[in-house]
Input
Amino acid sequence: MSAAGPSPGANSAPTGGSAAAKPQAWGDDMSAAGPNAPVIAIDGPAASGKGTIAHNVAQALRFHYLDSGSLYRLVALRAVERAVAPDDAAGLTGLTADLNVAFRDGRATLDGRDVADSLRTEAVSTVASKIAVHPAVRSALMARQRAFRAPPGLVAEGRDMGTVVFPDAGLKVFLTASAEQRAERRHKQLITKGISVNIDSLLRDIRERDARDSTRAAAPLAPAPDAVILDTTNLSIAEVTAAVLALYGEPAG
Ligand code: DC
Output
């Protein structure tokens, strides 16, 4: 899969938007409106392409889109800014409850400040993976994530969408690809953005994040027993998107 696909925006209202669609704000309680709205859960390790795929699937179906990793990244960014250590579970949980976040046009804002680019740095990625081990941080984010479930449906991507956050999702997909392939995709993506990084250090970071995300006690990265596992190592973005849509019963565009 090429890394040069469309860049997914974080957390949005139905893409392609009907007049009724309004941007989803952090904490908007839409659960009453759609506790039974369909959910497609797309989980997988770092740089597996789940963001791009989930965004494409949401666009094709005109569903809402939840990039749950961006919520962990927002907590991480705030923790860095406030010098709260990644092992200070109580401090992090306090931060999580108080975050003033909204998603506008697919970009995250923190206290009204556009932080979309700051969220994607490797430093924030590493802290996000560290703070995500704390069960209290994870539960503080639970209701925020479930609030994105609303008609006509939701495509949610992350690590535990199918196992913990939306265990009743109608379709669960777990994307995998070799660590080398994922490092290569991330490398190409960064080069496209004019950022030069060493591929060996990317590979090391990805392996470390995989290990931390998969071995933590709380909601570890793992496919749900009823998830369809898709190895994307030799597939293009279009092929993976089409495969997920076909699993959902919708032919691609
Ligand atoms: O998907 P991502 O790379 O943006 O996620 C950043 C970190 O957040 C990831 O290393 C682990 C954590 N995370 C998580 O624990 N559970 C999720 N559902 C999503 C992300």
Observations:
- The CA atoms of residues 177 and 232 lie 5 Å apart.
- The chain has a mean pLDDT of 86.
- The longest strand covers residues 171-176.
